Amino acid sequence: MQTPIDLRLARHGVIVLLLGLCTGFFIGIFHNRQVGNAAHLVGLIGGFGTIALGVLWPKLTLSRFWSLTGAWMTAASMYLNWLGVALKGAFGSGPKAPNPAVLGSPLVWDRLGGALLTVGALLSLVAVVIVLFGLRRLAVPAAAVESAVTGLAPDVR
């Protein structure tokens, strides 16, 4: 039996949350501690947000294709956002970082982290548009709109 997409999305949110929590233990050894703290927060906020979207997902009015596309874009964007910031903090963040470079040139890690963040941000943007589209409501009968506006029950004929 296949797991429903909302549970899979919530599971990925918990994994991103766990990555963010684990990042917090290693902030002290990051090349740039401020960016390491940002990676920690990106993991926490992204994880909680993805869990919340997993709870919301069954209420969206999307076709199967758009539902799967939006869910996987959301999950992938959260992983990419966390990984991009974590790589920038752990290995990159330029020559003025308080700790010395650990592995290679910080510029390479900055570029790689920046590329991951760019892709993650674009995926996030498309996923948010899909979610907004899924939050639309179908046409409401005129009688229901009239009763909502006037506060009176619609006429029964």
Question: Any chance you could write out the topology, listing elements then pairs?
Answer:
Layout lengths: L4 H21 L7 H24 L7 H28 L14 H29 L7 H9 L7
Helix pairs in contact: 1-2, 1-3, 2-3, 3-4
Can you tag this structure with a few keywords?
mainly alpha; 157 residues; 5 helices; single chain
Task: Give a verbal description of the structure.
- By secondary structure, the protein is mostly helical.
- The protein has one domain.
- The protein is 71% helix and 0% strand.
- The chain has five helices and no strands.
- It has helices at 5-25, 33-56, 64-91, 106-134, 142-150.
- The longest helix has 29 residues, at 106-134.
- The chain is elongated.
- The termini are far apart.
- The mean pLDDT is 84.
Question: Brief description of this entry?
Answer:
The protein is mainly alpha-helical. Helices cover 71% and strands 0% of the residues.
Largest beta sheet, briefly? none
Count of DSSP strands: 0
**Radius of gyration over all CA atoms, rounded:** 21 Å
Structural class: mainly alpha
Strand content of the residues, in percent?
under 5%
What form results from the Cα inertia axes?
A: elongated
> Percent of residues in helical segments?
over 70%
Span between N and C termini? 48 Å
Q: How large is the count of helical segments?
A: 5
Our count of domains comes out at 1
Which spans have pLDDT < 50 for at least 5 consecutive residues? Answer: none
Quaternary state, please? single chain
